[in-house]
Design goal:
This protein is an alpha/beta fold. The protein has a single domain, classed as NAD(P)-binding Rossmann-like Domain (Rossmann fold). Helices cover about 40% and strands about 15% of the residues. The strands form 2 sheets. A 7-stranded parallel beta sheet has the order 3-2-1-4-5-6-9, with helices on both faces. The protein has a two-stranded parallel sheet with strand order 7-8. Strand 4 (about 95), helix 4 and strand 5 form a beta-alpha-beta unit. The chain is globular and about 45 Å long.
């Protein structure tokens, strides 16, 4: 086990949803959190701000430092890592959670939309990881976690640019884990089996309560992964259910948004349409 107490964790996309849930869960472990996102001021269209997450982190026993940044700006990514080092003296864990989602056939994508999705997803994950790795080396190791799926190509039609941007994050994790094996840096990917209730899924009409789980399932899986010694954690594109099962957690009813309905495996079906059948769903 790798104690999380006093570890310095940088979370992108931390103003709401999965990022906020991960930050709060890590605060309960005694982590020092740097919370990064675009949203500082309240937006009537989207509940949750970095300051809201910071208050929740502090209430959970953690220490929070807030930094507003644009994930598409590579200099802002570098500055964010610098701010983490300045505030806490190092970085032990990077969670690349900031994301942009859009689904449509290739012919319906604009170049502007393509650049946005790749900029927030793959490019930002690259820029953040590149900036963090030298500092993790100095600490003798660390974790980089991508919120991205396994690479399975059956589901490309209708979602190709989005999926390629997310698979790019997974490929980066795979490469970093191999390249940094001698430095003690572990890189992994994590993805939910079902849809997760967030502002994005609600605003984009991507399902309803009975089809979603709460963000806390990814937060608990994140904590379970990050408790593992990075020197002994080889790359894997994990699913949240797999991580929790290894911790002995198989009753997932507390994570349901609708307590009376078990969600279907919508999220993993985006990248692996045959997953449900293979797992008896």
């Amino acid at each position: 086990m790798w104690t999380l107490k006093d570890k310095v964790v940088l979370v992108t996309g931390a103003s709401r949803g999965v990022g906020a849930a991960c930050a709060i869960a890590l605060a309960r472990e005694g982590c020092k959190l740097v919370l990064a996102a675009k949203t500082i001021d309240p937006d009537p269209r989207l509940p949750g701000t970095l300051l809201d997450t910071a208050r929740a982190v502090e209430a959970a026993g953690g220490e929070a430092h807030v930094v507003a940044f644009d994930a598409r700006d590579s200099q802002a990514c570098a500055n964010l890592v610098d701010a983490t080092i300045e505030r806490f003296g190092g970085i032990d864990i990077l969670i690349n959670n900031a994301g942009a989602i859009f689904w449509s056939p290739v012919a319906d994508w604009t170049v502007k939309r393509f650049d946005l999705v790749f900029g927030v997803n793959m490019r930002a994950a690259f820029a953040m990881s590149r900036a963090a790795i030298p500092h993790m080396r100095k600490r003798g190791g660390g974790h980089i976690l991508m919120m991205s799926p396994p690479i399975v190509t059956d589901a490309l039609p209708g979602k190709a640019p989005y999926l390629v941007s997310k698979w790019g994050m997974t490929a980066l994790a795979m490469a970093i884990d191999a390249e940094e094996s001698d430095t003690g840096i572990s890189a992994s990917a994590l993805w939910p089996v079902t849809g997760i209730r967030t502002a994005a899924t609600e605003n984009l009409g991507m399902g309803e309560a009975g089809e979603w789980r709460k963000p806390e399932i990814l937060a608990d899986a994140t904590v379970a992964l990050l408790r593992r010694d990075p020197h002994r954690l080889p790359f894997r594109a994990w699913l949240d259910e797999e991580v929790l099962a290894e911790e002995g957690i198989t009753d997932l009813t507390p994570f349901r948004c609708d307590p009376d309905k078990e969600p279907t495996p919508m999220s993993i079906e985006l990248v692996d349409p045959g997953w449900a059948a293979r797992h008896g769903r």
